[in-house]
Amino acid sequence: MKPRESEDDQPGEAVPGSALPGALPDALRAELVAFRRDLHMHPELGNQEFRTTAVLKTRLEKAGLSPRVLGLGTGLICDIGTGTGEWTGGRGMLALRADIDALPIPDTKAGCAYRSTVPDRAHACGHDVHTTVVLGAGLVLAELHRRGELPHPVRLIFQPAEEVLPGGAADVIECGALEGVRQIVAVHCDPKVDAGRIGLRYGPITSACDRLEVTLDGPGGHTARPHLTTDLVIAAAKVAADVPTLVARRADARSGLSLTWGRLETGHTCNVIPQHAELSGTVRCLDLDTWREAPDLVHGAIQEIADLYRAKPVVNYVRGVPPVVNDPVVTDLLRAAMAVRRGADSVEDTQQSLGGEDFSWYLEHVPGAMARLGVKPPEDRTSRDLHQGDFDVDEAAIKVGVELFTATALLDG
Q1: Which residues of the chain are modeled with pLDDT < 50?
Q2: Neighbours of 58 (CB within 10 A)
Q3: How confident is the model at residue 180, as a pLDDT?
Q4: What span, in angstroms and rounded, lies between the C-alpha atoms of 311 and 291?
Q5: Are 396 and 5 in contact (CB under 8 A)?
Q6: Looking at the DSSP assignment, which residues form a beta bridge with residue 152?
């Protein structure tokens, strides 16, 4: 897929109100495409985004802004329109959030001039685009503020470690990034949505995602005499096979509670019953209330099956992220902003994903919404997905994302 840099041929007609200031100038659009490609060539894992943080800080300072690197050492926040560079009270701000980390997978794009230069590291989830979009929106809004055309202050949040459970958002919140924030918005690249369009949904748009690690122990023994010991292989197999069904049957089916194992390991030879077994997997859930009950359901089901086979379980249930639940008022604000820029038909309904996103932690504190940013060339019929080494985007989406955010800030009443 060869990315396009301009979306001039994208669907969607301008509507009355499209004269709203904040359109992306061509010169800045070209700079942002180059900026995104530079990030793509230099991906950094969660909590290691030192270069990314530095280049963001330099560009924001060049625009006359005062970004503040988080106490975590990576990531930063930057206020626009406060006069002092920091919130000093009054009406709460709109926050624009981007995640800046990459994935620990190789970049497999062939013949791409800006493929990753770091072995086994790639921006295969579009975080380079999210970062560029929030940067671009910040630069446009800073210029509007200089001209007296920004109605309310805006905060940019560049967050590290989204891909690291339970997500860097919790640490960013702990650093005070939501102080003075009234509502928050974000985008996530969607390779199934055409560039020039966004997908929106009221209520849950992602799934909760937790990590589960289980160990089972027994005295071990000879395979000739399983009745004298704990048959740990059978016990582990039963936990693997039966616990997901038990968990699913003890929750409302509409909640989509799902336990899926990714690893089961036990034993070393054919005639020895092992003393130790390990299982690990993920727990996903579409419903926020059921997600809060999930640890007790999982613990109870594992204990029940382990007791049947006289195995001793130890359960490490690692909280990941709750579902992203879009606030209807903020969702309507994004919808109106997109309609102003590209017409009402540029917004499509989207389904709830089983993927997790730590943007949800912000929504535990303030209302907000996430939009799916279309990054697929409209003529491309190839089925693509995130977290794959050949992931790339139609760079026309950068302009769309910037103008979506600038219009959102200007329409925010």
Answers
A1: 9-17
A2: 10
A3: 95
A4: 27
A5: yes
A6: none
Provide the total of helices (H) and of strands (E) in the chain, helices listed first.
9, 16
Please say which residue of 289, 321, 353 terminates a domain: 321
Domain boundary among 252, 286, 321: 321
Neighbour-count burial for 75-92, b at 16+ CB within 10 Å, e otherwise? bbbbbbbbeeeebeeeeb
Q: How far apart are CA 193 and CA 228, in angstroms?
A: 59
Q: What pLDDT was estimated at residue 13?
A: 45
Distance between alpha carbon 80 and the CA centroid of its chain, in Å?
A: 24
Q: Strands (DSSP E) along 249-367, which ranges?
A: 258-266, 272-273, 276-285, 312-321, 325-326, 347-349
The answer to whether 316 and 333 have CB atoms below 8 angstroms apart is no
CATH assignment of the domain containing 224: 3.30.70.360
Residue 354 lies in a domain: yes
Q: Is residue 272 part of a domain?
A: yes
DSSP states of 176-214: TTTTTEEEEEEEEEEEEEETT-EEE-SEE-S-EEEEEEE
C-alpha closest to that of 138 among 35, 37, 19: 35
Closest CA to 370 of 200, 209, 172: 200
* Residue 263 sits in the same domain as residue 156: no
Does the predicted model carry a pTM greater than 0.85? yes
Residue 141: predicted pLDDT: 97
